[in-house]
Amino acid sequence: MGSQTETHDLPIVDLTDETLKPGTEAWVSACKVVRTALEDHGCFIARYNKIGEELCDSVVSALEQLFGLPLETKKQETSEKLFHNYYGQIPSLPLYESLGIDDPLNIKGCQKFTNIMWPQGNDRFCESVNEYAKVLGEVDKVTKKMVFESYGVDSERCNSFIESGNYLLRCLKYRPPEKNETHLGMQSHTDLTMQSVLHQLNGVAGLEIKIKNGNWLLVHPSPSFFLVMAGDAFKVWSNGRIRPCEHRVIMNNAKEIRYSMGLFTFNGDIVQMPEEFVDDKNPLRYKPLFDHFDYLRFFDKEKIIDSDLRVKAYFGV
Ligand SMILES: O=C(O)CCC(=O)C(=O)O
Ligand SMILES: [Fe+2]
């Protein structure tokens, strides 16, 4: 396996930049950076300073409260969708635990989850998580717009693509390893999503991504750094141009609990590959129309871990 390098090898797109408006030169060049990064590495860093210290602290304490609930409470079903509920107590991943919040950009989604976890209510949890998720949602939407624009796919289609996105906020916790215990937090994988936005919430590192040259790169946590990653479905949508990002979590040198958040998108309507992606030089590689949630059902049934094999098996033509 390749050696490890630093985050600054990864392109950074500054979304905080006031001049970054569609039509400007700054926008056009940022779109190019996004496209090249997604094609090369399957990810990039979005800098966005909308999460202040106060919100960050209240989300960390919300997670401490959430993970502190009894196991039976955390294991309750909060969504009927596949892969949207509790994960933990996995013998090969003893450090890892996570809970999913379905539809977190909508206050109703957060209320539904909160009322299952705390039948007596917990407004503070509900409101801070919703406010936080909305910021991650902004990162997701603006970067998707950049992808569409960089490929010259029309903005009408971009809007319906974004609107058909179902959001899942996964709250992740990793405890530090005990002596002689594995350091593996999460095994290497690509996400089944269209796009994933990851935020290492409490400054404890652990997320690593595999870049184009095969090296593993440690992603530095920062309150204003969001790792935007392509999932399997983005590869299919782009007829293989975008590469899904392989990543893992290793709890090396960690003395504290690591909290991380992932905003994942799964498209609800039938997804259509834009015709711009198919020509003589680029023949059709995947089903041009697909049902993203059916892909989740396929994975649930077949459990193919290798991303390339899984994508070929389900989407290949
Ligand atoms: O903990 C992280 O930062 C990554 C989580 C992740 O890769 C996942 O939930 O799919
Ligand atoms: Fe992941």
From TrEMBL:
For molecular function, the Gene Ontology terms on record are: dioxygenase activity; metal ion binding
Highest taxon above the source species: Eukaryota
> What is the stated purpose of this protein?
Probable 2-oxoglutarate-dependent dioxygenase that may be involved in glucosinolates biosynthesis. May play a role in the production of aliphatic glucosinolates.
Source species: Arachis hypogaea
- Name the UniProt key words of this record, in alphabetical order: Dioxygenase, Iron, Metal-binding, Oxidoreductase
Q: Which residues form the Fe2OG dioxygenase domain?
A: 164-268
- State the family it belongs to: Belongs to the iron/ascorbate-dependent oxidoreductase family.
Q: Which SUPFAM superfamilies match?
A: Clavaminate synthase-like
**Matching InterPro entries:** DIOX_N, IPNS-like_FE2OG_OXY, IPNS-like_sf, Iron_ascorbate_oxido_reductase, Oxoglu/Fe-dep_dioxygenase_dom
What is this protein's name? Fe2OG dioxygenase domain-containing protein
Gene3D superfamilies linked:
B-lactam Antibiotic, Isopenicillin N Synthase, Chain
